[in-house]
Design a protein that fits this description.
The complex is a heterodimer. By secondary structure, chain A is mainly α. Helices cover 72% and strands 2% of the residues of chain A. By secondary structure, chain B is α+β, with helices and mostly antiparallel strands. Chain B folds into 2 domains: 193 residues, Rossmann fold (3-Layer(aba) Sandwich), CATH 3.40.50; 139 residues, Sandwich (Immunoglobulin-like), CATH 2.60.40. Chain B is built from 8 helices and 18 strands. In chain B, the strands form 4 sheets. A 6-stranded mixed β-sheet of chain B has the order 5-6-7-3-8-9, sandwiched between helices. In chain B, strands 10-11-12-15-18 form a 5-stranded antiparallel β-sheet, with no helix packed on it. Classes of the chains: A mainly alpha, B alpha+beta. Strand 1 of chain A pairs antiparallel with strand 4 of chain B.
Chain lengths: 275, 393
């Protein structure tokens, strides 16, 4: 027998991940809805999903590859850039989408119960499509430059997972914060723009490590994606392994993720009242 | 195993009005600072407590259908929201034994760009159905909604009626052990409403536990055996539906709506019934000088299904010429065989050349004629004029 007990005096902060799992149908269908709706009534349709990363890659190649001539340790620049972009694009997408996600779903939130975490989680699922497309472009580039990956590729799943977790960690934090303080609606676009420069997507991490004092580098690696993108690139393209600084990012991701889940749960309680 | 489906103990919900809790970063920050500095004056902003619900206690046995009634703002929706777990109580506890579906709105999550088919899946999942459950009932849902032909086109091309029908069709096929429903029957055209009510009766008849909020007193009485009457956030009466309903009617009999018009209805029969051949007294009072010259008085009486039984307008009646100088109209209406368990009256004041009413009391009055079986005069196509008198004071 299914039993629900709610007691105002005995409220525990419980992640209740099993319940979340029971609602997997819901977040899959919400993700499906977002995907289906995303390119509805557009002329180019799904082609947009390719066009955006391709255009960014082109600009990166012209500016950083040709004009500034970033040192990529022998790797063709477009290949170098797309590797970083693959991880970063997913992260940026989830951030953009999840920040406003609960507010966007407020009609639902006010009318029906479900674990609210489903909302930002479904955004992370939607992002998989862009992630896959970026990987496709990456694959094509590798074929084009006849670049064969090193044995490090075995670590790729780990870094994919880290990308997803860090995107979720920040995404969950932002969606909960945005409900409480609408200020974060304005913070998110800024954060994404800022993050692109503060992440070694267009340039190698060594540039930062070699040119800044240690304390500044440590601050740089407080960006969770700094370490992830570095590791991601290392697992695909080989070269120097991630610096010790990268562990700052990795630890931070863990902390952000767990605290994000708890903070979200805390806000969840009053969500329908304040959204 | 207990036979209690829902147990609510000492439940309360308090809202902070004008408090910084929702969204003002600066005020939140100020209160942190104050906390840090050890200032605890408890006056961040103009915080004011408002108890939307207080000391709510009741139990619902398995298979019972309970209607929750009360005027606007009595806390009905808040109660359903708490029981649906959309929001948390501030005080007290509740316990629900069984799988719950709550229907506070039809068509939650509907997306205009998706097809009818996709929206059935989407909405069904949101309401807590599993994918295979929806798949199994899909044809039934489509048939019930009556939009078969358009099932694969985007819902944005549907008429609003079609949308509502589709949404309700999904909701009607939920099969939880406990069903929580807010005013959702007030959608669609009359025919569809009837169909929905039929479906609801089927659901309540199946021994399912139902919690039902509606302003449609007929629906509440037909569907529910027990009732809870909420007033200003507390339970003012609970128990057998008929008793709760009559309490509710009595408390609502005198309403002072916008415009300062008061309507009071009382049967003249000694036993307080409005039997065939007896008169019902309807007193309409308002403050003298409330209206200007040229005001007219309209009155109509109808059944739950909006069949008009009797209507009266003071327009062009010479004895109502100086109505604006008066302050009371008393109508005496004979029961010529109305057996409908409830009749509604509408009272309105309108200037001759204006379209909108200055004061309007709609729907609110509920008259209970005799329940004893007498021959019905109710005919749908003609207006039956009863014995009727009026007094202007």
């Amino acid at each position: 027998m299914h039993r629900t007990i709610v007691d105002a005096d005995k409220q525990k902060l419980n992640l209740n991940l099993r319940e979340l799992f029971n609602y997997r149908d819901l977040f899959l269908i919400l993700a499906y809805r977002d995907l289906k709706v995303r390119y509805a009534q557009t002329f180019l349709g799904f082609f947009w999903a390719f066009l955006q990363p391709a255009a960014t890659l082109l600009i990166f190649t012209v500016v950083f590859g040709r004009a500034i001539q970033v040192d990529t340790d022998g790797v063709p620049y477009p290949l170098f850039a797309i590797t970083g972009m693959t991880a970063w694009t997913y992260f940026a997408f989830v951030l953009n989408q999840s920040g406003n996600s609960v507010i966007g779903a407020q009609e639902m939130v006010k009318k029906i119960y479900f674990p609210r975490l489903v909302i930002p989680l479904s955004k992370a699922v939607v992002g998989f499509v862009d992630f896959a497309i970026a990987f496709l472009i990456l694959g094509v580039m590798m074929l084009f430059y006849c670049f064969s990956p090193s044995g490090n590729i075995l670590y790729l799943p780990l870094f994919i997972l880290l990308t997803i977790i860090s995107a979720l960690a920040v995404g969950i934090w932002l969606s909960a914060l945005t409900i409480r303080y609408r200020d974060f609606q304005h913070v998110v676009p800024f954060l994404v723009q800022f993050g692109l420069y503060a992440t070694p997507t267009a340039y190698p991490a060594e540039t930062i490590i070699n040119s800044l004092p240690d304390w500044a580098v440590a601050i740089y690696y407080l960006n969770p994606m700094a370490g992830v993108v570095e590791g991601f690139r290392w697992s695909v393209l080989g070269g120097a392994p991630p610096s010790d600084f990268a562990y700052i990012s990795f630890v931070l991701i863990g902390i952000l993720f767990m605290s994000g889940l708890y903070y979200f749960r805390k806000v969840e309680r009053v969500m329908a009242d304040i959204v | 195993m207990s036979d209690i489906a829902v147990r609510v103990e000492n439940l309360g919900k308090c809202y902070q009005i004008g408090h910084a809790k929702s969204g003002d970063f600066r005020e939140s920050f100020d209160s942190w600072i104050n906390k840090l500095r050890g200032i605890n004056n408890g006056q961040t902003g103009e915080s004011k407590e408002f108890w939307a619900l207080k000391d709510i206690d009741f139990e619902i046995k398995k298979g019972e259908a309970v209607g929750i009634i009360g005027s606007n703002g009595a806390g009905k929706s808040t109660l359903l929201k708490i029981l649906s777990r959309i929001t948390e109580p501030t005080k007290g506890r509740f316990e629900i034994n069984g799988r719950v579906s709550s229907l506070l709105e039809v068509g939650t999550g509907f997306h205009p760009e998706l097809s009818g088919r996709e929206n059935i899946y989407l909405n069904g999942t949101i309401l807590g159905m599993k994918r295979r459950e929806i798949k199994a009932k899909f044809d039934e849902i489509v048939a019930f909604s009556g939009v078969e032909k358009f099932i694969d086109i985007p819902v944005k091309h549907y008429s609003s009626g079609m949308k509502v029908r589709l949404a309700f069709a999904v909701a009607a096929h939920l099969e939880p052990e406990i069903l929580i429903i807010d005013e959702v029957l007030a959608v669609g055209d009359a025919e569809f409403q009837k169909k929905s009510l039929g479906k609801m009766e089927e659901v309540t008849g199946k021994g399912r536990t139902v919690l039902f909020v509606s302003h449609n007193m007929g629906a509440v009485r037909d569907l529910c055996s027990k009732g809870v009457f909420l007033s200003k956030g507390t339970i003012s009466q609970q128990g057998e539906m008929s008793k709760v309903l009559s309490d509710y009617v009595n408390s609502e009999a005198k309403i002072n709506k916008e415009g300062g018009v008061v309507v009071n209805v009382s049967p003249l029969d000694k036993e307080g019934k409005w039997l065939k051949g007896t008169f019902l007294k309807v007193e309409v009072e308002w403050a003298r000088n409330l209206f200007q010259e040229g005001i007219n008085f309209d009155f109509s009486m109808r059944t739950v299904d909006r069949v008009k039984l009797f209507a009266f307008s003071s327009e062009k009646r010479p004895d109502f010429k100086d109505l604006h100088k008066r302050s009371k109209i008393t109508l005496l209406i004979e029961n010529i065989g109305y057996v409908n368990n409830e009749l509604f009256i509408d009272v309105g004041f309108k200037y001759v050349n204006k379209d909108s009413y200055e004061a309007l009391i709609l729907n609110e009055q509920l008259i209970t004629p005799s329940k004893e079986k007498i021959e019905s005069f109710l005919r749908r196509d003609i207006l039956v004029v009863p014995g009727f008198q009026y007094i202007i004071e």
